[in-house]
Design goal:
There is one protein chain. With about 260 residues, the chain is α/β, with parallel strands linked by helices. It has 11 helices and 10 strands. The protein has a 5-stranded parallel beta sheet with strand order 2-1-3-4-5, with helices on both faces.
Length: about 260
């Protein structure tokens, strides 16, 4: 299923860019539209959330606002509006209560907007239920391949280096890290060592990714004490089975210890 948000604004805005980036990081498609009738009319027939950013001119643009209002009512598209209180009040002259799903009054927190739109898309609960996997590999092709395999079942984030992964882990804690064993700069084992040095993230499970299936390479990966390893040559079915087995084992162990 594809999730989309259309940002409508009369001018470019770093706030909108930040919100759009936050959504794209959550695998939501974000598109930018200006307030010309032609752009707004192109939204007709599309299933997406509309997010209207107001400034002084946009709040008084009767033609554009009435057109947005009509599309939202006729096609039952959710509409969120953002602006200062006086701008929202002016725009609501042309936007009916039935058309407006929600308001964000400036100044705003972009994180709150992203989370609100995620909830509007019905993704907040879905995301909360999914296990989170961080992919770390210097190969864009490997990242893309594994993301395609994993994303229907898991929430997937990607980093292309060990240092980027360590930065990512300062603010987020995935349920599993799939870490390339051989990377330029900070290698997989070096990245794992730094993870183990930090008490706040030391308990995050790590599985190595390796492209080599010979015995020495596999033993080298296993000797670093990760929770397991995956061969990059495995089939999609094998990869999903291995990860599912890992999470199943994690669940069973606490249940057994309670008895």
């Amino acid at each position: 299923m594809s999730y989309k948000v259309a940002f409508i604004s009369a001018t470019k805005s770093f706030i909108l860019d930040a919100v759009a980036k936050g959504l794209r990081d959550e695998h939501v498609e974000a598109f930018m539209y200006d307030m010309s009738p032609k752009e707004i009319e192109s939204l007709s027939g599309q299933k997406m959330i509309l997010f209207l950013s107001l400034d002084e001119l946009a709040a008084q643009n009767k033609v554009a606002l009435e057109l947005i209002n009509e599309i939202c009512l006729n096609e039952k598209l959710p509409l969120y509006i953002m602006g200062y209180s006086d701008q929202i009040a002016a725009a609501r002259t042309y936007l009916s209560d039935k058309a407006v799903t929600g308001e964000y009054r400036r100044p705003i927190n972009t994180k709150n907007v992203v989370e609100g739109l995620m909830a509007g898309l019905g993704l907040a609960e879905l995301r909360a239920k999914k296990k989170i996997i961080l992919l770390v590999d210097d190969s864009g092709q490997v990242l893309h391949t594994f993301k395609e395999i994993l994303e229907p079942t898991y929430t997937v984030y990607m980093c292309n280096s060990g240092r980027e992964a360590l930065t990512f882990l300062r603010g987020r804690k995935p349920d599993l890290i799939l870490l390339d064993h051989e990377m330029p700069g900070l290698s997989g084992p070096e990245t794992l060592a730094k993870i183990h040095e930090n008490p706040s993230i030391a308990n995050i499970p790590v599985m190595f990714l390796t492209g080599k299936s010979d015995k020495d390479s596999v033993m080298s990966a296993a000797s670093q004490a990760p929770q397991g390893y995956l061969l990059k040559t495995m089939s999609a079915t094998q990869i999903m089975e291995r990860i599912a087995e890992f999470f199943d084992a994690q669940y069973r162990i606490p249940q057994m210890s309670d008895k």
